[in-house]
Amino acid sequence: MGDTGRAPSAVPGQEPTPMPRLALYALVVCVLAVVAAVLSFVEGRWIGIVWVLLAGLSSNMAWYYHRRAKAVTG
Q1: Cβ 72 vs Cβ 19: under 8 Å
Q2: pLDDT tens, 6-21?
Q3: Minimal CA–CA distance to 23: which of 64, 62, 51, 52?
Q4: Fewest CB atoms within 10 Å of the CB: 14, 22, 24, 72?
Q5: How far apart are CA 53 and CA 72, in angstroms?
Q6: H or E stretch including 69?
Q7: Main-chain dihedrals φ then ψ at residue 39, nearest 5 degrees
């Protein structure tokens, strides 16, 4: 349903995930937005500016969620 802000409960014997799911999704969106921006600019379309802005936003989200998960796990 979404991120509730609570720390995940630790299961004995289970390794923590290396990267939280939301950070991974944001990173994928960032990479796709960069590819779309490059393709738009190569084709001479100015809509690439929107893709660059989306890439910046999603990279900030990925960084935030990664740092937040790192702070929670210690």
Answers
A1: no
A2: 666 656 666 666 678 8
A3: 62
A4: 14
A5: 29
A6: helix 48-73
A7: -65, -40
Residue 30 contacts residue 58 (beta carbons within 8 Å): yes
Q: Cβ contacts of residue 36 below 8 Å, gap of 6+?
A: 48, 51
- Is the CB of residue 51 less than 8 Å from the CB of residue 36? yes
For residue 58, is it left (φ>0), alpha (ψ between -120 and 50) or beta?
A: alpha
Block residue for tokens 């100015």: 46
Q: Rounded to two decimals, what is the model's pTM?
A: 0.71
Q: How many residues does the chain have?
A: 74
**Which string of DSSP letters, residue by residue, matches 24-66?**
HHHHHHHHHHHHHHHHHHHTT-TTHHHHHHHHHHHHHHHHHHH
